[in-house]
Amino acid sequence: MTRPKKAPFVFRDPSASMTLRSNVSSFATGLIYLGMIACTYSRKDTTGSVSPMVIDKLVSDLSTDRIRHHSTVADTAGLDAELRIIEAKLGPLEPGIRDHLAVVEVMYFTFADSTMTIIDKVNLHSGALVVHACVADDVKAIFEILRRDTFPIAKVIPINTYGLNADSTGWNDAASMADNNTSAFNYRTKPTSREPSKHGQGIAIDINPVFNPMVRREADGTTVEPPQGRYVPNRPGTLTRANTDEYLRPLGWSWGGRWPKPTDHQHIEKSQGRCEHMQFSLK
Ligand SMILES: [Zn+2]
Prior knowledge:
By secondary structure, the protein is α+β, with helices and mostly antiparallel strands. It has a domain at about 15-205. The chain has seven helices and twelve strands. The strands form four sheets. A four-stranded mixed beta sheet has the order 3-5-6-4, covered by helices on one side. A hairpin with a 7-residue loop joins strand 5 (about 100-110) and strand 6 (about 120-130). The chain starts with 13 loop residues before the first helix and ends in a 13-residue tail after the last strand. Mean pLDDT is about 80; it is low at about 1-55.
C-alpha cells in the first residue's frame, strides 16, 4: 500500500477536518506497477463563508521506488494565493469548481534525450496535475493507457510554477506551452473570447504542446501556439485521431485536434457526462 502523503497546505484546516480513506483501484495496469492503492483525502466543510481554494482530493498511486519526479503535490503550493489574484480580475471561480479541485499524481514515460526523440522505456516519471475532482479517475485512467502504450510525456508540472500572466488573467500558459509542459487546471478565459476555458473548470488537459500545437488559420495568416510548435503526426508524444479515439471516447473525452478552428492538437477535454458539483452540464 502506498504510504499516505502529507496533506498539501492548501487544505483549510487539516488537523480538524481532514479524513483519510483508501480506495483500491480496479485498474489492472496499475496493479502491475504498484499494487494500486489510491489515497484520497477528503475534507468536511466546517467553516462559514470564507472560501479559499480547497484541494479536496489527492489521488496518488506512486510507489516510492524507481520513479523520478518532475513535480509533486507540494508544487501546487502557490495556487491558492495566486487564484485569489486571478479572481480579482476575472471574478470569483464558482464554488462547484473552486471547492472540488483535485491533485492527481500521474506516472508516465518520458524522453531519454534532450532533443526528445528517444523514449526512455525504463524509468517512470511522475508529475502533479490539478483537475476537477469529477474527472480525477478519468485522468488516472488516461495516463494508465498512455503508460501502457509507452506514449512519452515531456513533463507534468503544475501551471502555477510558471507564474501569472502579466495582467493576472490566469497563469502563464504561453510559458508552460513553450516548455512542452503538460498541464490541466488554469483559471483563464479562452484565447479567442471571454468565455471561461475548460481549463478554468479543471476538465481539460494540454499534452506535449510543442509537439501538439494549437493552429489557427485565418484569412490574414496562421497562428501557431506555442510559436516553436510543429505538428508531425508520427513523432512520439504526438496526439492523433487514431491514438485518441481509442482511449478518450469511452471516457467521454474529446480531442481538440478534430476542431476546425482552431485546431488544438494539445487539448483534450471532458465533453460528455455529468458532474454533481458543476453548474453547467456536459453534452
Ligand atoms: Zn487546452
